[in-house]
Design brief:
Blueprint: H1 4-9, E1 11-12, E2 25-32, E3 38-46, E4 53-61, H2 67-75, E5 82-86, H3 91-98, E6 107-109, H4 112-127, E7 132-134, H5 139-146, E8 149-153, E9 158-162, H6 167-172
Parallel strand pairs: 1-7, 2-5, 4-7, 5-6
Antiparallel strand pairs: 2-3, 3-4, 8-9
Length: about 170
């Protein structure tokens, strides 16, 4: 899947990472792990002129609850284009916590087709150098990406991320 060489070539130093500017699109990906053990949160900045950039914001055990995540979302409700949520374990309670506190179309509950498309777009963009990420301080995202496997979704050839710790790369996708 994503090789170490592919990942390394798309890394940038923190000083070279895009700083969000007015007019840039900022979206957040939230992935609840299938076993209900953890939740990962990533951010993507799409500059008006430039390459999209992703970073893992946090990955916590669900034993910590979702209050921190709901607070994060509400605090960024004016600057975020969207919060895309994937996974069933915890998604409903998170949606309930932020209900009425976010703009109407800001909360997107991902469907299987969305997850399939996101994984493929992330993979292609990484392979083709059309996506950047921090080269330092993102070890959990790096390990998730380079150790990822393909996990079948549905019966039509769709796939998402699998492996030992796919939630970080899935949230970034």
């Amino acid at each position: 899947m994503i090789t170490s060489a592919m990942w390394t070539s798309s890394g940038v130093r923190a000083d070279d990472a895009p700083k969000p500017d007015e007019g840039d699109v900022i979206a957040y990906g939230i992935k609840f792990s299938p076993d209900g053990a953890s939740v990962a949160l990533s951010a993507c900045v799409k500059p008006r002129n430039g390459t999209p950039h992703v970073e893992l914001v946090d990955c916590r055990p669900l034993s910590h609850g979702t209050g921190w995540l709901a607070n994060f979302m509400v605090e960024r409700r004016k600057s975020a284009a969207a919060f895309v949520v994937d996974g069933l374990n915890g998604a409903g309670s998170l949606a309930e916590r932020v209900s009425g506190k976010l703009p109407k179309k800001a909360l997107i509950m991902a469907r299987s087709g969305d997850v399939i498309a996101a994984a493929d777009m992330f993979f292609q963009a990484t392979k083709e150098g059309r996506l950047t990420h921090l080269s330092d301080g993102q070890e959990r995202l790096e390990q998730s990406a380079v150790n990822s496997t393909r996990r079948a979704i549905g019966s039509s050839g769709g796939w998402g991320w699998g492996g030992d710790d796919p939630a970080p790369v899935e949230s970034a996708s």
